[in-house]
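Riboflavin biosynthesis protein RibD: structure, please.
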Amino acid sequence: MTADSREDARWLAAAASLATRARPISRPNPGVGAIIVKQGKVVARGWTRATGRPHAEAVALDAAGKAARGGTLYVTLEPCAHESPRGPACADLVSASGLSRVVIGCMDPDPRTAGLGLERIRAAGIAADHLPSPACEESLSGYLVSKRLGRPEVTLKLAMSLDGCIALQSGESQWITGAQARAHTHAMRARADAILVGGGTLRADAPRLDVRLPGLELRSPERWVLTGGKAPAGWYALPSPEAIAGMDGVQYLFVEGGAGAASSFLRAGLVDRLLIYRAPILVGGQPAVRDFGLASLASAHGQWRITERRQLGSDTLEVYSRIPCSQE
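Here you go.
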């Protein structure tokens, strides 16, 4: 990688960090981040606003005004090429901006754009490059899964003891992990469009599943329960893990409990990401996961790769991503 491409990668990573501010309020649109740079300095920045408009590029260009001329736009996702009653195509805004260059971190799989955005920008005489960026793809993971697979990205959260238990044999489960780990869980809830528990967990614990962090209370996700029956007031019912394909507008689904729901999603092969909070205790109680149809011990290997590990007070957090089948 050249010095110039390293610089491009650095600015794309910065745009990806900005994009986190849009999640999940940009729903149903993807949360995108954009930065305009000129002579090594940030001229303007933007991220997708609530309900999906205005888009990140429009926000950044509006903030930059005439200062955008001659600058470089770094944007996490290819600027859209389709018109909407809610606003103009970003590819057209960029084409008329006077920018000298555009660098994107991820191509848009939406067939209405899918390369047409870059094509239109280049036709306007602006240099436009696609530099694949892991940071940008991670920031858009739910959107990419929804477009490619027709379902939300599924994160399964497990808070367990050292011996893999989520509760005592009596059912007592509050609290396995400490305050810092629980606060982190609430921050992860705030990044989800929807949160789900099994029917048994709902009946036994009556969980609130809201976000209880100062300033983020309004980011509480939709509440869903995995059940063949009706959902209580304020909840939505999901009859099976496979039915997530019908969760309208949901890009990020957070599955929080219990063992039955966790096992059902694992059995269906629908878990993309694991958040494992591990407390330094032994309880000899109820396991975090039940039988989910694993055929052999050998087939358990090569399924997951660790992407993050951190300490949260006395607890540890490990984050795993599923390895695509082509890499197994």
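Notes: Residues 3-19 form the longest helix (17 residues).
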